[in-house]
Amino acid sequence: MPEDQNLKTCFIICPIGEADSPERTRSDALLKQVYLPVLSAYGYKPVRADQIPKTGFITTQTINLVIESPLVVADLTGGNPNVFYELAIRHATGKPCIQLIEKGSFVPFDISGVHTIQIDHHDLDSVEACKTEIGKYIEHFHDGHQANSPISVAANVRLLQSDPRYAESLLKKLEEILGSGWVSIDDLDVKLDGLEQILREIELKIGDR
Fold first, then answer.
1. What are the C-alpha distances in Å from 190 to residues 90, 102, 172, 194, 196?
2. DSSP readout, the chain?
3. From CA 28, how far away is CA 130, in angstroms rounded?
4. Percent of the chain with pLDDT over 70
5. Residues 174, 130: Cα–Cα separation, whole Å
6. Which of 100, 134, 131 is nearest to 118 (CA)?
């Protein structure tokens, strides 16, 4: 395991609640049972807002962590307004963000298109499955994939509207794949690689804006 001082920050956006409240008990359990084990294995240190040193403006420090942290995990359980405010800020950065929610909870429509990990923190199997999913997301981001959010999707749409060359390239590649009939696995891999390259160019273009 990496030394603590070498760990990157993963800011945890979550409902914290007062001491001894159900919200605090749940958040503490997730910190201990989920975040610490999986994040430290990938070189991250989880940090919550209540762990920020009591110097300066807490709100400013929190927003800076939301914006600057290499990774953010957002727990949407309970529909806390502060959580969604901070999540929107993170989405606007385009940086890696992982969403989770207590199993059976409602995911608001505006972010329902973003995959949200379901967890039952009372169920050990569910806890282990959540840790596995978080690990897969981190590996996905480490491989260079961009984080998706309603803001990034809207930005992609704007780019396609403003620069028809990307839309034409996508349509041409899709027509090539769909109209090619039977292809071998190797041929299909090559064709899909071409499509992925176009999508990656769009992601990079968005990142430059």
1. 34, 40, 15, 6, 10
2. ---GGGPEEEEEE----STTSHHHHHHHHHIIIIIHHHHHHTTEEEEEGGGS-SSS-HHHHHHHHHHH-SEEEEE-TT--HHHHHHHHHHHHHT--EEEEEETTPPPPGGGTTS-EEEE-TT-HHHHHHHHHHHHHHHHHHHTTPPPP-HHHHHHHHHHHHH-HHHHHHHHHHHHHHHTS-S--HHHHHHHHHHHHHHHHHHHHHHHT-
3. 16
4. 67
5. 34
6. 100
Identify which of 103, 121, 138, 153 has the alpha carbon closest to the alpha carbon of residue 31.
Answer: 121
Is 160's pLDDT higher than 60? no
Question: Which tokens belong to 92?
Answer: 């606007």
Architecture of domain 4-142: 3-Layer(aba) Sandwich (3.40)
Tokens of 51: 């762990």
User: What's the CA gap between 31 and 154, in Å, rounded?
Assistant: 33
C-beta of residue 147 within 8 angstroms of C-beta of residue 97: yes
pLDDT, position 183: 44
Provide the residue count of the chain.
209
Amino acid at 144: G
Rg, Å, the chain Cα set = 20
Q: Which two tokens stand for residue 182?
A: 């039977």
The amino acid present at 209, given as its one-letter code, is R
- How is the chain split into domains, by residue range? 4-142, 150-207
